[in-house]
Amino acid sequence: MTNSAASPAASRLLTFLLGVINKCEQTGIVVVRDGLPEGVQKLLHLATTVPEKTTARSEQTSEPFLSVIGNRVLAGQQAGGQMLTFLGETVLAFGRLLRGKAGFRGSDLSLLRQQCTGQLLPVAGATRIRNRKT
Cα separations (Å) of 64 from 6, 67, 72, 73, 121? Predict the structure, then answer.
């Protein structure tokens, strides 16, 4: 069953349930939604949530210009510091690798090989199929 086939059925179910809930609320019957499936509960919540009304003259408070500039400078400084830390750690690790002092656990190598093999199988299969056709 595709989503397009399920969509009208879900819409009809939602409409029916909303009608039943409205009738129950009008007559004073308490509706307990806990027995419904989680997906239906989410749909009902979305359908009954009323968006906040906004007026045409909503107050827009803009941040002062210097504050915007200052925040951007601080964010850039933090990002630059992180970049330099990463670059420094990379240079140190490469230096250890060249000196033969790099620490690499066998379990990490095994995991890396396993991940690479799993990711390359579809590529190898597609290449083999393409080569057979030519």
Answer: 50, 5, 13, 14, 55
pTM for the model: 0.34
Joined together, the tokens standing for residue 85 give 């830390």
Residue-number span of the structural domain to which 15 is assigned: 10-48
User: Could you tell me the mean pLDDT of each successive run of 10 residues in the chain, 134 residues long?
Assistant: 57 83 87 82 81 64 89 93 93 89 80 77 62 56
- Give how many domains the chain has, as a whole number: 2
The answer as to whether 118 is a domain residue is yes
